[in-house]
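Ticket opened by: R.M.
Priority: normal
Category: complex prediction / small molecule

The reporter submitted a protein together with iron/sulfur cluster and asked that the result be attached to this ticket for the collaborator who will pick it up next week. Submitted input follows.
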Amino acid sequence: MGKNRINLSMPSLTDAKIRKKLGIEKIKYELDPKYKDLGKGKKYFILTYGCQGNEADSEVMAGILEEIGYEKAVDEKHADLVLLNTCCIRENAEVRIWGVLGQLKGRKRENPDMLVGICGCMPQEESATKKIIESYDVDIIFGTHNRQNLPKLIYQAYYTKAKVVEVISSQGNILEGSPKIRESKHKAWVNIMYGCDEFCTYCIVPYTRGRERSRAKEDIINEVEELVKEGYVEITLLGQNVNAYGKDLDTNYTFGDLLYDLDKTGIKRIRYTTSHPRDLDLKTMEAMRDCKSVMPHLHLPVQSGDNEVLKRMNRKYTYEIYMEKINKLKELVPGISITTDIIVGFPGETNEQFLNTLKLVKDADFEGAYTFIFSPREGTPAFKMVDNTTEEEKHERLEKLIDEVNKGYKKGNERFLNQEVEVLVDGESKYGKDMMCGYSKHLKLTHFKSADKSLVGKLVKVKITEVKTWFMIGDLVE
Ligand code: 5AD
Ligand code: SF4
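Result attached by the on-call engineer:
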């Protein structure tokens, strides 16, 4: 595209691999007064893709935009600034975003003053940033470590009319004190750490999100105490591997300790995601048993049930260790619901190895799983591994896996039939007229008859009368 370009920095895969012992910067967010009214009279809209980490980042960016005067538009068509917060975990996540970028091209033709920004994980990939610059009409390109510079980037894009690119591939920083506009008034994301040091061989995240770095416990506890004061009922602690919380701080204070401390804040419900089986320790399991506010659900991605595949994935545990951990957890937290992530068709996965995954799904009694076909990501070790399984075979494996997983979903819901469950009400339900919905403690989507909108954000009791594979239906207990 014929526009000038300001290259503040470009992504580098080589830099993204570096893990130093020191050098994580804690940034205290401060707005340069010169940007104070930059967005006055203008509207923004953020399109968010990918994981909860991206959702939480979008809340920070919304906070920053509103601080400089922007107001939220009803949709991207009515916005002066559209931000795409992107994901690149699998190829199809990217394909979607190329499609949206294509549509925005047309919209920019109709409204040349509209600014389009792309951020999040995709710009962290060298090849994606190159393609965005060359083929799309995007004004601002910035990475996961640059979000606090949003006012500066908008300012430059407005006043120079150039394409502004700022993507650093560093170990990352910890941003404190930024404004936030939370999507919900009763459920909140709370980042407890950023980045990932696991380097599973299929995964791009360690390159897009930087080094594993924990927020100070005081900052986390203060944030949760504030949320309690504001009337929040549920928090979800976020990190790529929350079980590694504190390992980088050299203080012996672990994720389990944090759960015990957060339980004392008075928040009613605590969830957390995502966990790594290797780092899930006894202290965390005991905290799940002891802390009333920690919900009886755990998302524990297993990825494969075959030890040789797990080794090549660099997962650092075996079938046996995984089963041992979840059995211990089931003993300590009776009735806990366990969900997982599974990849089929990892390079070189044989049918026999796939059958070991199916066996694990049965043995583990998962009550849900996100299932994926392996997607090669440039820059990761698995990208170069020999893969001679046909696409057809991979799809067959996925279907067999989904059949088994669905049995678990249904069975997981059936155990609540005729029982009373506690539901945090999210809002109106699309399931039927005058129905509301929310999630039970075990993270089961629950619909119930009521037209009372004042229930939103409240904990109610629902007696389950019917269950389906994906949700439960019940009556409000007065
Ligand atoms: N291909 C397929 N699935 C992947 N995941 C991560 N990387 C890939 C990949 N390259 C899955 C894992 C992870 C979830 C968030 O996405 O199962 O737990
Ligand atoms: Fe996607 Fe991973 Fe980035 Fe989340 S961290 S947005 S899952 S690539």
